[in-house]
Design a protein that fits this description.
The protein has two helices and no strands. The chain is mainly alpha-helical. Helix 1 packs antiparallel against helix 2. It starts with 6 loop residues before the first helix and ends in a 15-residue tail after the last helix.
Length: about 110
């Protein structure tokens, strides 16, 4: 069994393959851009969640010591130490340390 193809048919086949490769590459670029955007949004939500959970733990411990504790030194420690931790956490959360922008081909990581 032999296959006889004309030059036009071979060029048409190569053209179709080239078009498929171009469509596939364009789709992968869009998918990568969407994944980068989703990752940046997830980082912000993750950090916000950790700040809120930490604040809830701090408030819970303070409430327990204030309502059930009678020692004034323990009261000052429970109020002061979490204030330092929360100040550190909020400072880190609100400080921009890096800008994650889209990378171009050939940029260094």
């Amino acid at each position: 069994m032999t296959i006889d193809l004309t030059v036009t048919q071979v060029l048409a086949g190569v053209g179709v393959l080239l078009a498929l490769v171009m469509v596939w590459r364009a789709g992968s670029r869009k998918a990568r851009a969407a994944a980068d955007t989703a990752r940046a949004g997830a980082r912000l939500l993750s950090l916000t969640g950790r700040v809120l959970v930490t604040a809830g733990v701090i408030v819970g411990v303070q409430w327990l010591v204030i309502t059930h504790g009678r020692d004034s030194t323990l009261l000052w420690v429970v109020l002061g130490l979490p204030a330092l931790f929360s100040a550190y956490t909020l400072t880190r959360a609100l400080t921009v340390t890096a800008v994650d922008g889209p990378r171009r081909r050939g940029d260094r990581r």
